[in-house]
Specification:
By secondary structure, this protein is of the alpha/beta class. It folds into three domains: 2-87, Winged helix-like DNA-binding domain superfamily/Winged helix DNA-binding domain (Arc Repressor Mutant, subunit A), CATH 1.10.10; 93-159 and 262-287, 3-Layer(aba) Sandwich (D-Maltodextrin-Binding Protein, domain 2), CATH 3.40.190.10; 163-259, D-Maltodextrin-Binding Protein, domain 2 (3-Layer(aba) Sandwich), CATH 3.40.190.290. Helices cover 38% and strands 25% of the residues. The chain contains nine helices and 14 strands. The strands form four sheets. A five-stranded mixed beta sheet has the order 4-3-5-14-6, covered by helices on one side. Helix 1 crosses helix 3, helix 2 crosses helix 3 (30-44) and helix 5 (101-117) packs across helix 9 (275-287). The longest helix is centred in the first third of the chain and has 28 residues, at 60-87. Belongs to the LysR transcriptional regulatory family.
């Protein structure tokens, strides 16, 4: 069994790109990682990692050894997961990164239902819009909205939401109701991430640049500002359901709303994925398959 000593640490360094990041992944000290990798190199008689002051890279022998070790670790994980699957008793911690009102209002309650089905599973949701490092942060998957650019990640479509423009009755009484998107240029607007709003005009998507009189990267805060009459908001329709039902907001420009506001489940492209993550992803996809 001594031949396995340092293997997990070596693989963690290879995948995360450094000793410090590997230590965070394995929840241990950097010195422990360095010591274990050094002992592994001494036993194998090969330099596995080329160390410089700025970065750490696999040597040719290291790249070969990493592939072999990764297969062994993957096989071990899969054997353990197979046992868990047979017992169907999920354990450990499912770590999810999410952002936005949709995640707070709909994703979190869905995961609460999933948690009740698996009482021995811990769930950790980080509501943060920053780009996550799936390895260093230990994130199983993320919920993201809009266009995705990182081709190294797997993205599965969760739900597409139509957009909706709204304003408070008080705002419309004071400033009038626009009947075309171009008229928004002379209106007060409540913004979140962009001042370019896309509308369906004459069968094509056209952008309209609007002026911000209140801006926040939090959709719930923008919603509240809109309810208080600070301007017109344009967000996914699900954001406004309760406010419209309570007559706090009024839909406008209905003939021009665009579609395609898509939420995605995003995760790292890797051979092994914990069973808890697989089942949670499939649960969410099924839960939102007929979502309106």
């Amino acid at each position: 069994m001594d031949s396995f000593e340092g293997v997990f640490e070596f693989v963690a360094v290879a995948e995360s790109g450094g000793f410090s990041s590997a230590a965070r992944v394995l929840n241990c000290s950097t010195s422990h990682i360095s010591r274990q990798v050094a002992r592994l190199e001494e036993r194998t008689g090969c330099i596995l990692l080329a160390r410089t002051t700025r970065q750490i890279n696999l040597t040719e022998n290291g790249a070969f050894y990493y592939q072999q070790c990764k297969q062994l670790i993957t096989g071990l994980h899969q054997a353990n997961e197979r046992l868990n699957q047979q017992q169907f008793n999920l354990s450990g911690t499912l770590r999810v990164s999410a952002a936005g009102a949709f995640a707070e209002q709909y994703i979190a309650p869905a995961l609460m239902t999933f948690a009740k089905q698996h009482p021995t599973l811990n769930i950790d949701i980080d509501f943060n819009s920053r780009m996550v490092n799936f390895v260093e942060d230990g994130v199983d998957f993320a919920i993201r909205y809009g266009e995705l650019t990182d081709s190294n990640l797997i993205a599965r479509k969760l739900v597409s939401r139509s957009m909706m423009a709204v304003a408070s009755p008080d705002y419309l009484e004071k400033h009038g109701t626009p009947n075309h998107p171009n008229q928004l240029k002379s209106h007060r607007c409540v913004l979140t991430n962009t001042d370019h709003w896309n509308f369906n005009i004459d069968g094509a998507t056209q952008g309209v640049k609007v002026k911000s009189h209140w801006r926040s990267n939090n959709a719930n805060v923008a919603l509240s500002a809109c309810e208080k009459g600070l301007g017109i908001a344009y967000l996914p329709a699900s954001t406004f359901i309760d406010s419209i039902n309570k007559n706090k907001l009024v839909p406008i420009l209905q003939d021009y709303w665009a579609t395609g506001a898509t939420s995605w489940i995003v995760y790292q492209n890797k051979q092994f994925q914990p069973l808890r993550a697989k089942l949670a992803i499939e649960f969410l996809l099924a839960h939102f398959s007929n979502w309106q």
